[in-house]
Amino acid sequence: MAKRILVVDDDPDLVEAISMILKSKHYEVIVAYGGVEGLEKTKTEKPDLIVLDVMMPDKDGYTVCKELKADPVLCEIPVLLLTAVVSHISTTRFSHQMGMETEADDYMDKPVEPVELAKRVEALFSRQ
Amino acid sequence: MTDQIKIMVIDDEQIMRDGCARILSEHGWSVLPAENGSVGLAKLQESPKEIDIILLDLMMPGMSGMEVLEKVQALDDTLLVIIITGYATVASAVEAMKKGAYDFIAKPFTPDQLRIVIKRALERRRLQREAEFLRSERERSLRDVATEKSRVKTIINCMGDGILVCDRDSCIVLVNPAAGRMLEIPESRLLGNFVSQSNFPLELSKTIEESQKAGDSAYTSISQELIIGKAQEMFLRAHTAPVRNDLSEIMGTVTVLQDISYLKELDKMKSEFIAMVAHELRAPIATVEQQLTVILGGMAGELTEKQEQLIARAKERTKGVLILIKDLLDLSKIEAGKMVQYKEPLSLAEVIPRAVEMMKSDAIEKNIHIVFVPPPRISLIQADRDSMEGIFTNLISNAVKYTPAGGRVTITLNDHDGFVKISVADTGIGIKSEDIPHIFDKFYRVKSIETRQIVGTGLGLTIVKSIVEAHLGTISLESTEGKGTTFTVLLPKIADMTSCRENI
User: With an 8 Å Cβ cutoff, are B293 and A13 in contact?
Assistant: First the structure.
């Protein structure tokens, strides 16, 4: 059975683009257009992986991630954070600080290269 | 005072007056005769300071010579009075000299005797004038010093920046109204008080006391930011430096205070603007690029060759804009001092290999060999790790970009006096000498056939330079067209940082 991936971003165009990439790799995709909706869908749909945007107006990605990781059931779901790059120079600092803080399983800068995204997603699944 | 020597002859005898006048005028000295004391004194009062010497007969009817001498002395005690006296009355001549006459000549005298006496008096007169000239010069310069002092005081008092001078015991010896206003302490409560007892911001009094203990040779200037006031905050920048005498001993400190509240306000506005640009501009462009990658990946249907070509080019353009936005964000952060906040003791021997690693794939693609041999021992520097990684990634990436396939990029690292020296040398196309002065300018890019295909924002080296400077270092380059370029970075070792601090 195909793995189900939840894509969460407040930008519908981006959600669509990411979904198309994942679908082309034969994943099943469900979508949410904000942090709150993302949490809801995670609880109801129990996806196998979440692609989560950081900057969202209602609830940002860090908060969503923290809440998920605090949940004894949902904490098992791998989270791939989509970051709007903070800086050219300090990507390592960003990954270091934010990655540790949020306990996200991986992170990628937007926009993502389809091949790279597929690779990372696969890696997260194989880790389980 | 005129150059013409004027001699007054006071004698009741016509013959004496005429005789003296004749002898003296032969020398070009002018003679002013007076037939008695009152006439002589009257003439003296008419033109004071014009007479150099008075020849005075002691024995005159009416006012005696002695009386005239006293009155002349009262008028001007620098006047040289020569007494004319008979042999019989030498004793009174001596008495006259006790009273201040300069010399005497006994009657009858020869013209030579008179000339000798007068010449001696004139020599004395010359010395007198010279002494007086020197005295007036000195007075004038003292007066100048006094005027200068009050002028400097006026300037200091009118200055918009606050000035605060402390002596060796950290007692405030000079303060201007601006300083009082900025620190919100009345001037009267500052002057003559000790810094520790003046309700000073704690950080500032600490800095002043530290400056008093600065090392003997190093030039030390500490700048710091202070926040004053509770209700309406005011931001001050304080620069404190020790004041030294010619033996280089510390005599006290001087502190200059600047109100930078408006700068802070501007800075805040700038940050807000940049945050807005980042969000409002970056996000949609990132989405557009994401959509283009999907189309390009064939996930939205098959593309014709032409469509693919156009979309690929469009994607390159959005990529360029995103890089530009990132660079602008970096630069504004560095300029706001936010980029290098996390300084720690750092070994570049650990940082550089990471930067080399990051550039490896680009280098392999172009068959460029990156050479870096870490030295066995290298001094630590006080630096921000990510910024350091950033500058070396940038320099190595440039070297790779501007070096033709098959070339070589050599990185060397070693101690160099008080600095750690890093150079990145390539065997690339080099930089024209006319481009070198602009190479660190914002948005400056070398335009030539060789560089046309190379993508860049023209901000990379500006960022590198800003970071190096934020670490109190320097960057320089040497380049030969067609041969290659070497960038050299000097960063102060930790031990040498203590003498040059920035607390901003």
Answer: no
Last residue of a domain, one of B259, B289, B320: B259
ipTM computed for the complex: 0.88
Contact (Cβ atoms closer than 8 angstroms) between residue B316 and residue B364: no
Q: Which two tokens stand for residue B490?
A: 């000097």
> Measured between beta carbons, which residues in chain A are less than 8 angstroms from residue B326?
85, 87-88
Q: What's the domain count of chain B?
A: 4
Contacts B293 to A, Cβ<8 Å:
17, 21, 111-114
Confirm if B83 and B67 have CB atoms less than 8 A apart: no
Q: Which residues of A44-73 are buried (b: 16+ CB within 10 A; e: fewer)?
A: eeebbbbbbbbbbeebbbbbbbeebbeeee
Whether the pLDDT of residue A92 is over 60: the answer is no
pLDDT at site B335: 65
Q: Does residue B14 fall inside a structural domain?
A: yes
CA distances (Å), origin B86, targets B40, B119, B425, B479: 21, 21, 105, 100
Same domain? For B360 and B490 the reply is yes
pLDDT of B337: 61
Looking at chain B, the number of H-run helices and the number of E-run strands are 14, 17
What are residue B32's DSSP bridge partners?
B8
Q: Are residues B17 and B113 in the same domain?
A: yes
Do B326 and A87 make contact, defined as CB atoms within 8 angstroms? yes
- Residue among A9, A119, A123, A105 nearest A65 (CA): A105
pLDDT score recorded for residue B303: 93
pLDDT of residue B496: 46
Cβ contacts of A13 on chain B, cutoff 8 Å: 287, 290-291
CATH code of residue B44: 3.40.50.2300
In this structure, are B272 and B251 located in the same domain?
A: no
pLDDT in tens, A6-44: 999 999 999 999 999 999 999 999 999 999 999 999 999
Q: What pLDDT sits at residue B1?
A: 44
Examine the domain organization and report whether B220 and B187 are in the same domain.
yes
Q: How much is the pTM?
A: 0.49
Could you tell me the residue range of the domain that residue A41 belongs to?
4-127
Mean pLDDT by groups of 10 residues along chain B of 504 residues: 78 88 88 90 83 88 87 85 80 83 86 90 89 89 84 89 91 91 86 84 84 67 76 82 85 91 81 71 90 94 94 92 81 65 82 88 90 89 85 91 92 89 92 85 74 73 86 88 91 62 37
With CA atoms as reference, report the closest residue to B389 among B350, B360, B439: B350
- Considering only CB atoms, A87 lies closest to which of B291, B329, B342, namely B329
Region for B322 from its dihedrals, namely left if φ exceeds 0, alpha if ψ lies in -120 to 50, beta otherwise: alpha
B454 sits in the region (left: phi over 0; alpha: psi -120 to 50; else beta) called beta
Pick the residue from chain A with its C-alpha nearest to B283.
Answer: A84
- Give residue B429's domain range: 343-499
Q: Is the dihedral of CA B224, B228, B231, B232 positive or negative?
A: negative
| β partners of residue B226 | B236
Q: How many domains does one find in chain A?
A: 1
